[in-house]
Each structure stands twice: as structure tokens, then as C-alpha cells.
Amino acid sequence: MFPRTGCFTPFRLSTIRQRANFEQVKAGLAWHYKANQADQAVAYRERYAAAEISAGQANLLLSRG
Fold this sequence. Notes:
Layout (H helix, E strand, L loop, with lengths): L9 H17 L15 H16 L8
């Protein structure tokens, strides 16, 4: 158990980072790299792919070129 000192645990930082990454993909500010998706859990992979598709349909996605 961690003391309540207000500091972040490594797990908490990882969760915050992953949420920030997802929000960037959802807003069209980042891409879901298919080459790295094997490192993700299936649920996250599907969620990120859907967010990228949704951003593309809303014309929010950055150009890859």
C-alpha cells in the first residue's frame, strides 16, 4: 500500500499517459500506429482504432504526408 502523499505511483502515471494519448488520437492530433498495436490489449487497440476513424470522418485527423 502506498502512503497518501499526493505523489503519483508508476501505475497512475502510466494510466494518465495512456488517457492523454487516447485524447490526442480522438481529437485528431495523433495517429494510432498499426505497427505498435500488437503491444496493446485488444480492448485498447479497438478503442484507439475507432477514435482514429471517428476523427478522420470528422475531418480532424492530421495529414500523414
